[in-house]
C-alpha cells in the first residue's frame, strides 16, 4: 500500500533510506500564496540534526534541504512542493555486518519477513533519517498555521525517571540545553543520567509533550478522523513511539468523572474551561483550549552491550553493535513530534472549512 | 470530510445517531466466500448491550442487527455488506433539556461550534450507540481473521485503581463477571468500587487490553500506515479513549535499552523473542508474536452530581444531568476495542498480500 | 477494495443488490445546515423510476426513499446521511435460469471469475438498480449546488441515429416526452425507432449530455483530480457507458488549433469565450463557462432474441432471456448522469476552498 | 487537495514544473523484488523525448532519469521509489511575455483564478513536461505487468482525418515513423498533413489507442473503481485529452443490442468472445479478452497565428505566441497513454488479490 502518504488535503509523501542518495518529501495540497524559502525549512531540520552534543551521534550530517518545485517568486503556487536532503556522510562499511543478523528492537527481522530482503545499510527505510522528510513538511505546515495565529511547540517532558517540574517551566530553556527540556534543573539531572547510561553502554527512553495554542474550535472530523485519532496515527507512526496520551491520558483512567470533567465557564465573554483534562479535544473536535499530547519513546535499540539474537540462517548468535548511536532518541525527536502535530492539525483545519453550508456560502460570496 | 470511513481494502462507513431511526455500517471490500449470518454479528453486539448488570444503564435496547446486502446463499459476495440496527426504546424527553447547555466532558459544545447546531438527543452522533456500527463490522473482520487462524480478544485490565493480577489471569472469566475482567478477584473488588462510586453519584475510568494471537509477520505498512499507527487511530477514534499503549507502552520510556530490547532466539526451528516489550510490532510491521495494545478510557462524563457549565447563550449555569448512564464505560467498550483491532489488522493483512513480486506471481500462477 | 466509495470531502458509499432487501447510500461529508427532506430526494428518484412509459420496463417499483440519519429538525447535521430504498416487487423466479449461464453483454461471467460466485437474481450488484443510490446522493449534491447558484441538468442527446437539433432545443421539453429529449420532433422519431426495435426484439443505445451552469472558475485539482478526470471516472462508473466526451470531445481530434482554441474576450467587464470547445475546463480546472459533458450508453444487453453463449460448465448453449427489460437505458440514465456530475462537481468545489492562503485567512477571520 | 496522487496500492505522487529545477515522481506501494534500473525507465522516457523529428519541438531535452530511493542491489525494496529528471535546457526568456496574458486553449487563466498567481514559465505545472513523471512511473508498472505476462502498448490511431487501416496494421511500424502509427501508409499521409498545417502556422489533433493483452479476468472493483472508470480518470487526467472510449465506444450508442453483445463461446477449453465491443471489460471487471481504450487529443493550443485574447488586466488584446511547439501532441503522448494504462491496470490487479477468501487462504497457507 501507499504507506508513505499521510493527509487528505495537505498530503505528504515521503521517500528515502538512510544510506541511499537522499531522503525527501512531496507536499501536495499546500495552499498557494504562502511565502516560503529553504531557510524556513532549514531551521526546523537543524533542530533534529545529529552531532550537536555528546548525547547525540557524532556523525556530521549536513542535512541541507533543497526545494525542487511548488515555489515561485518566493511563494507557494498550490502545486506539489518537492524537497530533498541529499545523504552525504554515510560510511556504509559501518553497517555491513548487520546485513546478516537481526538486531533486537530493530525492524531488520520484520522487513526481511515482509519484503523478502532489505536495504540493511543504517536501517534503510526504517532509519531515523526518514524523519527528515516529516520535519521538512512540518516546517511548512507550522508556517502556514502561524499565518493563522496558531502555534505548535514540543519539548522533552521526561528522560528515564527525570521529569520536568511545571513550577520551573520555561519554554525558551528547551533550546538552551541538549536534552530539549524547558526546565534547566531537570535538564541537568537528565544529562547526568545519560552520561551514566553511556558509560554502561546502555540507552534511555523518555516522553515528548506537544502543545497547540490558539487553535479555533471545530477542527476534527467524527468518527474515525477525530483530531485525537489522527494525532494518534501521526505520533505512533514515528519510530520508537510506544504510547500516546491526550490531555490527562492514562491518569484519566484512574479518575472519577467529577474530577475529570472540565467545567465550562464564561470569562469576559470568552468560553473557558476550569481544567483541561480533555487536552483540548471533545468528541474528536478541538474545543478552543490548548491541544496537549504526549508520546512515549522507547530507549535507543542500538546499544553497545553484547546481545543475543539470531541471524538470517535462523541460528542463535551473539552480537556487538558498532557505529555511532545516540544514547537517547528523545531530544532529536522533539521537532519530529512538533512536525507531525502541525501536519495533522493543518490538514484537519483545512477540511473543517467545509463543515457548514453557511461557511461555504460566505466563502464564495463575491 | 468523510470522517466516518476507515480502512483501505476492508473499509467501513458508519452512520447513525443515538435517537434517530437507527445506526448502521457499510462494510466494503470484504472478500467473497465468507460464511456469514446475522447471528455471527449478534453475538458481538450482545456483548456491548446495555442493561446486563447494575453497572450498565438499565435501558433495554434490542440492538438486533439486520444484514441488508452483500450476503447471498449464506456467504459474502464481495460486494458491500450493509447492516442496520434500528433504534427502538429511546425516550427523547429525557434529553430535551440538554439542547440548551453544554455538558462538561461531552461533545455538545464542539459539535455546536463546528456544525452550527446539533442533534442533541442522547448525544446524537457522538453517543456511545455509534459504536454499534463498529462492533457489527468488527464481528465480520474477526470471523474472517479466524478463518486464517488469527484470534483477537480484549478484556478489562483495570477499573480505577483495581488492576487484574496476571497470576490469576483466566480469559474465560471475563465473560463471567459484569466488568469483563479475566480475574475473578479483581472483578469483585472492581464491583465494590463501582457500587461505592454510584452511591457518590460519580463515575470511574479504566483500561482495556487487547491481544492478537497468531498474526503472521509482515503485516503493517511503513511509514504512516504502520500497524501500530493505524491501531492508534482506530483506538483513539473510540469516544472516551485518552491514551493508547503498545507493548511496554509508557513503561518503555523509563526503561534502558538493555531491558527493553526483545532478544530473538530459535526454539525448535521457530523464531521467538525472550520478551515482548515491542507488543508484537517492530518498525510498524507485525513480528509474529502477540500484538498487545491497551486503551485508557476516561470516566463516564454523565454524572449525577450538580455541575457548573455554560448554556447556549454563553451564561454560567448549574446543571443536574438526568437519564440513565453507566457509571463506567469500560466493560461495554471491551468488545469495541476488539472490533476496531480486528478491522485494522484485517485491512493491513489484506494490503500486505501485495508486498512482494514473488508472492504476487505465486498468487496468479495457475 | 472499497470500490463502492466515491469522493474526497463529499463522499458517498453505496450498497445493495437488485433482489436483496434494498439499495442504499451513506453520504458522508455533507455540510451542515442544508434544508433536506425525503421529498427532495424522491423527485430525483421518480425520474429514474421504471414503468413510466412503454419504453421502460413495466415493473412497478415503488422506490420510496427513507432518510435514516444525518438530518435533524429539517436540516443536515454534517454527520453521515444514510438513505435506503427497500426492494419490494422483485419476482425472483424470473431470474432463476440465469444462475447457470453467462448472458452476453452482462457482468455474469466477470463476477463469477472475480468472486467465485454471484448473486444472480436480476444482476445482483451489477443491476441498474444500483444507480438508485447514486441518484439519491446526487439529489443532495444538486440541492447544495443550487444553494450556491449552480445548476446541473442532463438530457438525451441521441438515440441510435436520431439526434436532437440544437435549433429546436427546449430544456423543458425533456420532461414532457418518455425519451427525455429536449426536442419534441427528435423525441417523436426516437419513439418510432424504439417501437420498431421492440418489434425486432432488439435494443438501442444513445448519448446523454449534461451541463453545469454558473460554476465558478477554479474548481478541479491538477493533475489526477482534474475536474474532467473525476467526471470521467464518475460517468464511466455508470453501467453501460462506453465513451465520455468533454466539450468538443472526439471532434477536437479532427480540428486544427485555430478552430479549437476558445478565444477569450471581455464583455461588460466579464471574462467570456467566443466558443466553448474546452467544455468549460482548462488544465482540469473550471473556467467559468458551462461545463459540457457527454456519455455514450451501449444498447440494453438483455434482448429477447435467441443468443449463443456458454454456461457455468463451460459448454456452448443457446439462450432466450425472459423477464422485463427496457429496450433502451438512456432515458432513465439521464438523471443518473446528472447525479454523478453533481456529486463530482460539489466534491471538487469543496476541495477548491483550500486553494489559497488568502482565502483561508478570509474564511477564519472573525 | 492532493490532486497529484493516483492509485490505491500502487500509488504515484508527481511533482514539478516545466522550468523549475526538475520533475519527478514518488512511486509508493511497488512490490519488492522487481529487478529495476534507470535504463528500464529511460527507454520509456526516450519515447516521449522532444526533438526527434521535424514534427516535434526542436528543443533538446536530456530527460535523464535518476532513481533516488527504493531500489537496492538491483531490485525494488517495497519502499517508495523516488525518481527525478532535472530540467536543463529551458530558456526562460522565451516565455516572459505570457506572464501577462491568457493564451487561448491553455490553463493560464484557470490557474490564476484558482491560485491567485502562477508559475508562467513554459506553462509551469500544466506543461506537458509534467507527463515525464507519469512515464517514469508507468515504466515500472509496465515492467511488473510484464513479469506477470501482461503487455500494454499504445499507438497513434488517427491524426486529423488520417486514420490507420487495420488491414495494414503492423505494431513494429509504430516505432519506425515519427507519428507512431502502426501503418506506414497512413503515417506518410499524416506527415504530409502535418507539414501542411505547419506551413499554415496551425496544429492538429488525433487519437491514441491502447491495448492490454493477457490480462486475467477479475481485475476492476465495482462500482466506482471499475477498470473502465479508473482508466477514464487516468486518461482524462492527461492534458489535452477531450474524449475517452472503451471498446466500441461511441459507436455502441448507435448499435443494436444484437450487434453490440459479444457472444461467449468455448474454443479448445478456453472461454472466448466472438467480438470485443466491450473492450475487455464487463461490469467494470476485466473479462480476459484484450482491453482496448482510446483517447482523443485536441490540437496543440500553442499556434503561431495571431490570436485574440485578454490580458491580466482584463483588456482585449492580440497575441503572437513565440517559442518552440509541436504541431501535434499525439505521437509523444502515445507513451503517456501507455504509462497511465499500465499504472491503472497494475493498481487494480493488486487490489483484486483480495477478492475471495479462498484466494487469501491459499496465499497465506504455508
Q: What is the number of domains of chain A?
A: 1
Number of strands of chain A: 18
- Could you name the CATH class of chain A? Alpha Beta
**Biggest interface between chains:** A-B, 115 and 115 residues
CATH architecture of chain A: 4-Layer Sandwich
- How far is the N terminus from the C terminus of chain A? 42 Å
CATH topology of chain A: Chorismate synthase, AroC fold
Helix count from the secondary structure assignment of chain A: 8
Strand and helix order of chain A: EEEHEEEEHHEEHEHEHEEEEEEEHH
Q: Please mark out the parts of chain A with pLDDT under 50 across 5 or more consecutive residues, or reply none.
A: none
What structural class do the secondary elements of chain A suggest?
alpha+beta
The oligomeric status of these chains comes to homotetramer
Explain the overall architecture.
The structure is a homotetramer of 366-residue chains. Chain A is α+β, with helices and mostly antiparallel strands and 366 residues long. The first copy, chain A, has one domain (5-364): Chorismate synthase, AroC fold (4-Layer Sandwich), CATH 3.60.150. Chain A is 27% helix and 22% strand. Chain A has 8 helices and 18 strands. Chain A has helices spanning 38-48, 108-115, 131-147, 184-199, 227-236, 257-260, 330-352, 357-364; strands at 5-6, 11-16, 22-28, 65-67, 71-72, 75-76, 81-86, 151-159, 162-163, 206-213, 241-246, 264-267, 270-273, 281-282, 285-286, 291-297, 307-310, 316-319. In chain A, a hairpin with a 4-residue loop joins strand 1 (5-6) and strand 2 (11-16). In chain A, helix 1 (38-48) crosses helix 3, helix 1 (38-48) crosses helix 7 and helix 3 (131-147) packs across helix 7. The radius of gyration of chain A is 21 Å and the shape is globular. In chain A, 66% of the residues are buried. The mean pLDDT of chain A is 94. At the A-B interface, strand 1, helix 2, helix 5, strand 11 and helix 6 of A face strand 1, helix 2, helix 5, strand 11 and helix 6 of B.
Amino acid at each position: 500500500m501507499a504507506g508513505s502518504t499521510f493527509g487528505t488535503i495537505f498530503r505528504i509523501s515521503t521517500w528515502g533510506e538512510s544510506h541511499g542518495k537522499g531522503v525527501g518529501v512531496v507536499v501536495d495540497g499546500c495552499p498557494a500564496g504562502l511565502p516560503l524559502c529553504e531557510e524556513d525549512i532549514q531551521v526546523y531540520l537543524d533542530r533534529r540534526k545529529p552531532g550537536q552534543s555528546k548525547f547525540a551521534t557524532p556523525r556530521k550530517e549536513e542535512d541541507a534541504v533543497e526545494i525542487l518545485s511548488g515555489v515561485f517568486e518566493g511563494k507557494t503556487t498550490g502545486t506539489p512542493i518537492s524537497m530533498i536532503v541529499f545523504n552525504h556522510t554515510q560510511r556504509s562499511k559501518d553497517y555491513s555486518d548487520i546485513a546478516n543478523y537481526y538486531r533486537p528492537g530493530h525492524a531488520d527481522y520484520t522487513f526481511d519477513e515482509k519484503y523478502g530482503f532489505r536495504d540493511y545499510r543504517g536501517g534503510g527505510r526504517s532509519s531515523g533519517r526518514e524523519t527528515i522528510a516529516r520535519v521538512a513538511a512540518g516546517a511548512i505546515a507550522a508556517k502556514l498555521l502561524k499565518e493563522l495565529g496558531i502555534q505548535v511547540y514540543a519539548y522533552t517532558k521526561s528522560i528515564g525517571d527525570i521529569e520536568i517540574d511545571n513550577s520551573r517551566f520555561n519554554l525558551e530553556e528547551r533550546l538552551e540545553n541538549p536534552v530539549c527540556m524547558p526546565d534547566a534543573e531537570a535538564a541537568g539531572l537528565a544529562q547526568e543520567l545519560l552520561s551514566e547510561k553511556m558509560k554502561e553502554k546502555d540507552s534511555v527512553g523518555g516522553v515528548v509533550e506537544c502543545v497547540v495554542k490558539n487553535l479555533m474550535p471545530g477542527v476534527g472530523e467524527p468518527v474515525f478522523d477525530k483530531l485525537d485519532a489522527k494525532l494518534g496515527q501521526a505520533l505512533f507512526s514515528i519510530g520508537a513511539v510506544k504510547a500516546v496520551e491526550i490531555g490527562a491520558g492514562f491518569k484519566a483512567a484512574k479518575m472519577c468523572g467529577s474530577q475529570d470533567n472540565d467545567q465550562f465557564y464564561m470569562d469576559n465573554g470568552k468560553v473557558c474551561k476550569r481544567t483541561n483534562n480533555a487536552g483540548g479535544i471533545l468528541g474528536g473536535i478541538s474545543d478552543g483550549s490548548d491541544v496537549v499530547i504526549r508520546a512515549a519513546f522507547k530507549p535507543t535499540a542500538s546499544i553497545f552491550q553484547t546481545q543475543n539474537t539470531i541471524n538470517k540462517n535462523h541460528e542463535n548468535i551473539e552480537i556487538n553493535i558498532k557505529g555511532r548511536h545516540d544514547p537517547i532518541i528523545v531530544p532529536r525527536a522533539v521537532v519530529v513530534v512538533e512536525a507531525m502535530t502541525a501536519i495533522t492539525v493543518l490538514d484537519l483545519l483545512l477540511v473543517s472549512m467545509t463543515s457548514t453550508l453557511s461557511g461555504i456560502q460566505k466563502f464564495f460570496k463575491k
